[in-house]
Amino acid sequence: MENIIVVRGAGDLASGVIHKLSNCGFDVVALEVEKPLAIRRKVSFCEAIYESEVEIDNVICKLCENLDDIYSVLNEDKVALVVDPNGDYIKQIKPKVVIDAILAKKNLGTNKNMAPLTIGLGPGFFAGKDVDIVIETIRGHNLGKIIKEGYALKNTGTPGNINGIGKERVGYSSASGIINTIAEIGDKVEKGQILAQIVDENQKIHEVKASISGVLRGIIRNKSNIVSRLKILDIDPRIDEVKNCYTISDKARCIAGSVLETVVKYINTGNI
Question: Residue 243 has what DSSP assignment?
């Protein structure tokens, strides 16, 4: 296991990276928080936190409890996932590569001392200082650009367009509390349809309605404890594209390709 790669985060974009690296023969260890809040749960390896094991497009990820579990799962040619929000396992594993794929729009502690090669996805990292390489994550001509010096583009706060629809396709929580989901991923929904309810600390119910018609591509896990203004759902306006709910996105695959290019170049040449 000379080429272990640690990926911080295992949401849908991180999972696209994890999937590609695993398929290319790398041993991948994913680090997650105790209660991840992924929206595109059908293509997020972090769901193994709740399900113990998940499979995405023939790649299996298993939840681990300790270092022995991690190495055992890697020996099975599977992705190992462990609860470790602070990255404490990195010092024990001593990976060749550390990738920050948390996509928090800021650096939560990843630094160049963590591994011979460090990669940050999206805004919040300065390539050459915080990490060795930054990968652009904003949709457009530069999506997947490998940045060797400087920052990625700042977060716009606006989701990428699908069929000309941007911010309307994403839903946010209007209150803090416990979410009770009504619709399921893959459901065809109509504008104005109630998709979930949020029960706040005063037991007041806040309805979450679909802002557009389409396919519910993602929704946060039922009974999750959420905060106000959190992104909680994603609707694809392409009504016949139900299969997209269960497949890795084009954006995730593009970013994953750039990560793979960076990793392979470093391993083959020793250069960043």
Answer: G
